[in-house]
């Protein structure tokens, strides 16, 4: 288990060092020293060191007004980067998903063990109806610009995982990581204005573009392959086990700003977003990949 998580710990350490370099370059070594002191005292306090716990409380209480915000931001940014490393670890070749790749097959075998016939399982698959609902509530507090930077950090970790990288390629990726972390540090994390219903709808479209566009088809392909392996069965071409629904631009529960005009605007915006330049680029990339595999 320790070996399984060593890569994740290494990535966390690398990202933390780059963040520390950014803080030092921007605010000076004294702020970085204060952050490191708090981090180390927190770690030893959690391990049960009572003296360090008292020193930690004293250190926090004695932070000056000028130190409060940068110290808080330092830990906020570090947690963001740690989350990226953990998320990448969960899907990386050496991560948790790779340690149990046959989860769907195991599920089918457990159902068979409950005396369900293959035909019953096929019928259940054909009746599957899963709805993914995009809500209008602004539950995502992170700004989209910051989210995009963190997504690229994840991509850099993926690139660094290749063992055949040349030294100059690894240096280029590390340089880009340093740039992204510096950009994130200088990005205002707090929205100055409350998002409008249209802004919330655009955020939902971004979720489709950045996550669901590839994630849902990938899952369905894997699901279909497991069905073929375990049940000698493929889902019908016309099957639509996963559907998307949305409250965006139409949720009037306590929001007087959602008017008929807003709903009309968002409805008209959806086809524009789904056929806009970014989805078009994705479809073009998908087509080129299909063409390359076919020749």
UniProtKB/TrEMBL annotation:
> Which key words tag this protein in UniProt?
Lyase, Pyruvate
Q: Determine the domain of life of the protein's source.
A: Bacteria
Tell me the Gene Ontology biological-process terms attached to this UniProt entry: carbon fixation; tricarboxylic acid cycle
Family matches, as InterPro entries: PEP_COase, PEP_COase_Lys_AS, Pyrv/PenolPyrv_kinase-like_dom
Cited Pfam families: PEPcase (PF00311)
A single Gene Ontology CC term: cytosol
Q: Where is the active site?
A: 137
Q: Which reaction does it catalyse?
A: oxaloacetate + phosphate = phosphoenolpyruvate + hydrogencarbonate
The molecular function GO annotations come to: phosphoenolpyruvate carboxylase activity
Among its keywords, does the record have Cell division?
no
* Protein function: Forms oxaloacetate, a four-carbon dicarboxylic acid source for the tricarboxylic acid cycle.
- In Swiss-Prot or TrEMBL terms, this protein is called Phosphoenolpyruvate carboxylase
Q: Which organism is it from?
A: Ewingella americana
The gene that this protein is the product of is ppc_1
């Amino acid at each position: 288990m320790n070996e399984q998580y060593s890569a994740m710990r290494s990535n966390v350490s690398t990202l933390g060092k780059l963040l520390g370099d950014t803080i030092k370059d921007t605010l000076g070594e004294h702020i970085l020293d204060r952050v490191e002191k708090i981090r180390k005292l927190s770690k030893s306090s959690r391990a049960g060191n009572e003296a360090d716990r008292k020193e930690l409380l004293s250190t926090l209480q004695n932070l000056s007004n000028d130190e409060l915000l940068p110290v808080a931001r330092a830990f906020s940014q570090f947690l963001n980067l740690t989350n990226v490393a953990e998320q990448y670890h969960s899907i990386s070749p050496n991560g948790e998903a790779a340690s149990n790749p046959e989860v769907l097959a195991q599920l089918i075998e457990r159902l068979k063990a409950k005396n369900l016939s293959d035909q019953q399982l096929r019928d259940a698959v054909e009746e599957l109806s899963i709805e993914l609902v995009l809500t209008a509530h602004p539950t995502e507090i992170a700004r989209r610009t910051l989210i995009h930077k963190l997504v690229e950090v994840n991509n850099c970790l993926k690139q660094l995982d290749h063992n055949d990288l040349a030294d100059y390629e690894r240096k280029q990726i590390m340089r880009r990581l340093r740039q992204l972390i510096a950009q994130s540090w200088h990005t205002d994390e707090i929205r100055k204005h409350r998002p409008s219903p249209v802004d919330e709808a655009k955020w939902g479209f971004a979720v489709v573009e950045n996550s669901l566009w590839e994630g849902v088809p990938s899952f369905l392909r894997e699901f279909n392959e497991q069905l073929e392996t375990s049940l000698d069965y493929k889902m019908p071409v016309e099957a639509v086990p996963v559907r998307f629904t949305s409250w965006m631009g139409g949720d009037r529960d306590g929001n007087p700003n959602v008017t008929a005009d807003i709903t009309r605007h968002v409805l008209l915006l959806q086809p524009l977003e789904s056929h806009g330049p970014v989805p078009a680029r994705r479809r073009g990339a998908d087509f080129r990949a299909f063409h390359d595999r076919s020749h």
